Amino acid sequence: MTYDTVIIGGGPGGYEAALQVARLGGKAALVEKGPLGGVCTNRGCIPTKALAAACEVTDSIVRSREFGISVPGYTVDPEAVIKRRDRVSMTMRKGVEKLLSGAKVDVISGQGRLVSETEVAVNGETLDGRTLVLATGSEPTSLPGLEIDHEYVVSGDDAASMPRIPEDVVIVGGGFIGCEYASIYSRIGSRVTLIEALDRILPGEDEDVSAELHASISKTATVMTSTKVESADREGKTVKADGKDIPADTVLLAVGRRPALPEGIDDIGVIYDKTGVQVDRMMRTSVDNIYAVGDLTSGMRLAHVAYAGAEAAAHNIMGREREADFSVVPWCVFTTPEIGRVGVSEKGASVDVRVGRADYLGNGKARCMGERGGFFKVVVDAQKGTVLGAHIVGAHASDLIGEAALAVKAGMTARQVADTIHPHPTLSELFRQACLDASG
Ligand SMILES: Cc1cc2nc3c(=O)[nH]c(=O)nc-3n(C[C@H](O)[C@H](O)[C@H](O)COP(=O)(O)OP(=O)(O)OC[C@H]3O[C@@H](n4cnc5c(N)ncnc54)[C@H](O)[C@@H]3O)c2cc1C
What we know:
This protein is α/β, with parallel strands linked by helices. It is 32% helix and 24% strand. The protein has 13 helices and 24 strands. The strands form 6 sheets. Strands 1, 2, 3, 4, 5, 6 and 19 form a 7-stranded mixed beta sheet that branches. The chain has a 5-stranded parallel beta sheet with strand order 8-15-9-10-11. It starts with a strand and ends with a helix.
């Protein structure tokens, strides 16, 4: 039979494309070499957030006296924490499996190889598709002298499925994965050294946000910036950085990812570069009937970006023209405190901007929660008053950034946000307050 589409890769990009094609009345085949759900469900978003949730429990216990509650002593059972992490991932994975079987998607377990513009080989058989979707994701990169061996030097993917919590861990790379792990491990009993080559962690974030996070992580971990790691001694269990030997039973390398190109791609003429497969706004590659979505493409490597690309690709496959719109993409870092960002920063804006700010310290709900640190910053077009960006560092930033994304996407003015009644006492009032500040 000829499928409407044959998809290689069963992560958020691949399974969402399959589900959407099925929803639109098409027949899809999905080829996955590992567990369904991809990095997100098995090695990325979900397991890390399950660990972060365990840390929130320990944080509450540590701070319980402040609330008049005494918890005499507590222990962390690393095995139980890991088991819960794996249970959460498994539940999510089973959910994906159920959705796919409910949608009558043919799931084939095996490594897919591109044979032609319409054919994928797997397990010695060939699947025929009117269209193909490449959704093979990305893979972690190594550094010279610090090659990932999956035992001593591990990647973010490995760490998310590691059967233990390290005692002494050196994390190389202060991007979002490095920072999330530094925040998690250091609050759950590991001694953590976070090393970043540039002069600040999260170098892509607003400078005030980076500084606030640096101060917070430094309470539980050693943070070294402007520092280059030279080598790792697997026998001696140390890492050399700036001439110093830092003890480490595990080295977590989080220095970036590269596209995981499927075998055969060079023979069919799909154009890609080192950032990923090139696609147009319809998610079409340089070969007309071949689409690519998610981490494999040169967009932002986030699960919700993969979903959005997959939705557009599926509609185009089924003859319902749709462009993917990545103009407004919220971005979260699940550290303590959390970070949320959308749109432009004060320094990155191409027009004159005004900035409005609201501190958690002055927010009633934050006070009740005992959250004194953090802020909500909005970047507003000085002429038009429209909200161009928002930057949050503080409790529940990941839940708050969605409203700001809506305001940016809808082209709302700070005045319109400020004129919208927000419920009291809630953290959402921070957005209104920051917009009020920006509108004078
Ligand atoms: C530690 C960590 C934490 C993260 N946290 C977040 C987060 O909080 N929020 C967020 O939005 N994003 C997060 N991400 C990023 C997110 O996981 C990815 O953006 C998302 O998984 C991309 O989806 P995808 O479908 O493009 O690729 P993937 O999820 O990588 O899926 C690709 C799939 O293709 C399969 N595959 C590859 N080649 C073949 C082949 N030849 N044949 C068959 N199958 C193949 C792979 O086995 C894999 O299952 C995190 C990533 C990491 C590493």
